[in-house]
Design a protein that fits this description.
Layout (H helix, E strand, L loop, with lengths): L14 H10 L1 E4 L3 E7 L6 E5 L7 H18 L8 E7 L8 H17 L3
Parallel strand pairs: 3-4
Antiparallel strand pairs: 1-2, 2-4
Helix pairs in contact: 2-3
């Protein structure tokens, strides 16, 4: 399987995992996204996404999620150690972003994380 694929163990699925990242993790915010991240103690980074129904129709939600997964697939190898649980919460306006702009916005948040790690 290609290293650019998103494997099952790289996805956050359970509500408690999302809650833990939100409650115990660090937060960063951009104009269109909130990003929570927390060391997960596992061998790989994991991605969780929150794209709420109240803001977008199904087509818009799926497009946002597709772009976020694409970002994670391409940049997971460049994310700093230790492995993190990364939860990306889309905010209103995200549906109007081009995929490249989404990728730049999220990568800027995680790059800023690298510079402020303790």
């Amino acid at each position: 399987m290609s290293s650019l694929s998103l494997r099952g163990h790289e996805k956050m699925r359970h509500p408690m995992e999302f809650r833990r990242a939100k409650d115990q993790g660090k937060r960063r915010r951009t104009r269109h996204f909130r990003v929570n991240y927390l060391e997960n103690g596992l061998a790989a980074h994991r991605l969780g996404m929150v794209v709420q129904k109240r803001f977008w129709n199904a087509v818009q939600r799926n497009r946002i999620k597709r772009c976020l997964r694409e970002f994670f697939r391409h940049f997971k190898g460049q994310l700093p150690a230790p492995p993190l649980d990364i939860v990306v919460v889309a905010l209103p306006g995200a549906e109007r972003l081009q995929p490249r702009d989404m990728l730049l916005e999220i990568s800027a948040v995680l790059a800023r994380k690298e510079g402020h790690s303790s």
